[in-house]
Design a protein that fits this description.
With 398 residues, this protein is an alpha+beta fold. It contains 16 helices and eight strands. The strands form two sheets. The protein has a four-stranded antiparallel beta sheet with strand order 1-3-6-5, with no helix packed on it. Strands 2-8-7-4 form a four-stranded mixed beta sheet, with no helix packed on it. The model is unreliable at 1-30 (pLDDT under 50).
Length: 398
Amino acid sequence: MKMNTLTKTAPACLAALVLMAVGSATTAGAASAPALQGQIVLRPLTPSEITDYGLPANTETSGGLSAVGKGQPVYLEALVNNAIAPSNIVSVTWSLTNQPVGSTAVLAASPLGANVPTYKMADRFNQAGSPVFQVAGRRLLRPDITGQYTVVATIVTTGSGTTNITQNITAGTYLGIQVCEFCHSGGVAAPNIYVPWSQTLHATMFSRGIDGLVSSHYSKNCIQCHTVGYDANALAVNGGFDDVAAALGWTFPTVLTNGNWASMQANYPSLANLANIQCENCHGPGSEHAYAFGNTNLSNWPRLGISFGAGDCGQCHDSKPGHIKNAEWNNSIHARTTRTPSGAGRENCVRCHTAPGFEGYTEHLGSTNAYATNTVYEAITCQACHDPHDASNPHQLR
């Protein structure tokens, strides 16, 4: 009888154990679904990428900054964890939740196709060569009025949840070096950035070029990167060099010779104010920053682009075959350092493994003052080693 009882009850017990195991496996599977890790990225777009990915020749470049000239493009990307199966990305919904009064700007289809990867090498591949993030959706914003814009992306997945991500964008007009100098030349209002910057090669690139001191083949094709706010889109009227040159009737000199720069300063001072590689080349247009100075109640202060991203440099330094600095960096291990969040207690890591961390470390060498470490990793980019504002060391090394 005992044997009969065991024989009869064993299948039932076994079935119960199997059900428990299946239930545990299901729970464990749900718990181990890849984290969403959603983010909105303001994607840079470089001249070399336009060629490499077969984009139309009139596609506009971008530094991927949060401050852009009125009428200039903002390439928006929604990124998610690459471990999520594409079939589990249910939807990406974009909305423009805030824009200046009178603006009719809309979120449009992005010109970047599926063959264009996300920009950062550390997002494309980790040091083991495995992808980290994938593009879930893209949009294009072209601000039509100066002011603040807010974009929200809602990402819905199966298994990895849902998230809403917000990105603020400032649209402005270009003011030129004289306005920046007014505050940033050693007074009490702001740090002295103008004086050390004025000693860099950036500060005289255009003026040396038209005087024949750069090369014999310096031409009007060079000045998109050597002047402020120059863009090829005729609809982007934002006070950039091209707008002011057209209004004044200035044309590129037919002969590169000493005296061209002095002539521009004397006869076209408002245009000379926008010449050379200045603050607004790397930080975006400064009108919103300058007009809102001191009003910290305004959202998104300081209303400038402050970036350690390689794309900020790449908008000019990635134009093969002549300009290959970003191409060299893209192929380095520096470009693939981890983007795992850092924080307090990890200062000894971030000072070498992130661009902002290294900048903070070098700025405080010899000081016992505590300083805040960054909380978001950025790869070891150009700005980690080269200070765009200071020529004290060779090659502007920190």
